Amino acid sequence: MNSNERYKKTAIVAVDIQNDFCPGGSLAVTDGDAVVAPTNALFARFPIQFLSRDWHPAETVHFAEWGGKWPPHCVAGTPGADFHAGLKPTKAIVVTKGTKNSDDGYSAFEGLVQEMADTPFGEYLRLRGVERIVVTGLATDYCVEATAIDGIKQGFEVILALDACRAVNVQPGDGDRAVVEMVNAGVVVKNTAEILAELAA
Question: Which residues contact 8 (CB under 8 A, 6 or more apart)?
Fold first, then answer.
């Protein structure tokens, strides 16, 4: 099977590119909006597209006020939970996660595809014949890492588009450490240009 055939069974999963994680948001990741352009470049080439989103209740153990580690962010129905306006998917399917008040909901594989009767994300990928996912988004050291590693655990090939991700770096170097952990789990790390070049091979 050549590269082009393999990519027909590949989906791009853009993780949590939402206003609250971008500059000006309540939990802004440094240069978070820099992931938009490379993600769009991938959207333009991959017909199977997913956008995962945090969709938290206002009161959740995920937030510091109720025992978590984060300020309120991506509360369901608020502008902060909207996807960044610069994203240009052609026909992306939304995966909603973090909807309960009792968990963090980091991984897209904890999410549901609501347009198909709340089907678990991994199950939906298998129904679509997807074998491989390319992961982009925010943040490298939390939701991106959790999504990529869960993808491996669920039997998918996983590529991290490194230049299309940014890290929170609560502690200096957290993003780099997350990349090492992903590689150790079996994730392949490439940049967007490499991935697009494979499509042309």
Answer: none
